[in-house]
Amino acid sequence: MAFRMKAVRSILPKVPTEFVTFIFVIFIMPTIYCFELFVVIPTFYPLWSLWYTIHFLCGTFLMCNITSNFVAIICTDTSVKGLVLQSTLQPKWHFCSVCESVSPPRSWHCDTCNTCIIRRDHHCMFTGCCIGHYNYRYFLAFTIHLLIATVYATYFNGYFMWDRINFEAPMTLLKIIFPLAMVAFGIDVSETQLYLVLFLVTIMGMLFMVTLLIVHINLIWHGTTTYEKNHKIRDYDFGWKQNFKDVIGENWILACIFPFAQLKLKGDGIHWNTRDSWQLEASKSR
User: Fold this and answer.
1) Residue 44 pLDDT > 60
2) What stretches of 163-268 show up as alpha helix (H) in DSSP?
3) Where would I find the beta strands (DSSP E) of 71-206?
4) 115 — phi, psi (to 5°)?
5) In what residue span(s) does the Palmitoyltransferase DHHC domain sit (predicted)?
């Protein structure tokens, strides 16, 4: 698979709400990384001891994969722009009235990106771009590594915060439930309150990643996209093993370790075999 890069001007989100979430994500990831490795972990192990070094390397490995896959998602062009497509309608192809061109099977127009996306799954508000054929595996790897990192951090944060929260204080419950509101109103801007905010952001991130991963593993397992699942289209389900290879590539282990490894996907995202055509070819070959 060729790595199709976007133009620099098209990387940043164009919708104000998406731009805010985009800035939040690129700010909060290094903040929590530094919080875990330079505030939380040193309370359990002496700085640069053997166990601290192990946790430092593990955390840095996860951070590198999270940020690299995040960059790959937003920099990979998964649209039909620049592609030479046929001008006549074929089975499963459709005409996009906005782009004024014929679009391949499984490709749909995104109003936010203002173009048709190859094997479009959804528009991601955190990256400000669509998830499609060319960047789906980066999105999946980003989600998996972020889930591992938030579970990892939550485990240590739980012990770290337990010794710092006074559960007998009358405002404790309110601080836990509404930490950001408490900071905004200036009731508590202490160091502990800041730690609590980061702790709860990590927990919310973990729960969100669990939900996201369950949804997308289910989609990939059945060989569908969000649109196809909603419209009960099951034409591209070739079994869970092949379905995952179609998204990640043959060597999924390499994809999880090296975000920018050039892994060849089965198809080009434009021409798709269906279950019916595959079964027909299989019966002819017998």
Assistant:
1) yes
2) 172-177, 179-184, 191-221, 226-230, 240-248, 252-257
3) 94-96, 101-103, 108-110, 115-117, 122-124, 129-131
4) -165, 165
5) 92-231
Q: Which residues of 162-193 are buried (b: 16+ CB within 10 A; e: fewer)?
A: eeeeeeeeeeeeebeeebeebbeeeeeeeeeb
Cα-flanking dihedrals φ and ψ of residue 37, to 5°? -85, -25
By percentage, how much of the chain surpasses pLDDT 70? 83
Tokens of 59: 């955390």
Cβ atoms 32, 150 nearer than 8 A: no
Picking from 22-26, 61-65, 189-193, 225-229, which range would have the lowest pLDDT averaged per residue? 189-193
- Gap between the Cα atoms of 177 and 87, Å rounded: 57
Tell me if 38 sits within 8 A of 155, measured CB to CB: no
- Mean pLDDT score across all residues of the chain: 86
What is d(CA 161, CA 196) in angstroms, rounded to the nearest whole number? 7
Question: Quick one: CA torsion of 246, 247, 253, 254, rounded to 10 degrees?
Answer: 100
Secondary structure (DSSP) of 23-52: HHHHHHHHHHHHHIIIIIGGGTS-TTSHHH
Cβ-based neighbour number of residue 224 at 10 Å:
22
> What is the model's pLDDT at position 1?
45
* Cβ-proximal residues to 168 (8 Å cutoff; 6+ apart), any chain: none
The pTM of this model reads 0.89
pLDDT digits (tens, 9 = 90+) for 50-82: 999 999 999 999 999 999 999 999 999 999 988
Taking the C-alpha atoms of residue 130 and residue 6, their distance in angstroms, rounded to an integer, is 12
Domain ranges of the chain: 8-78+134-284
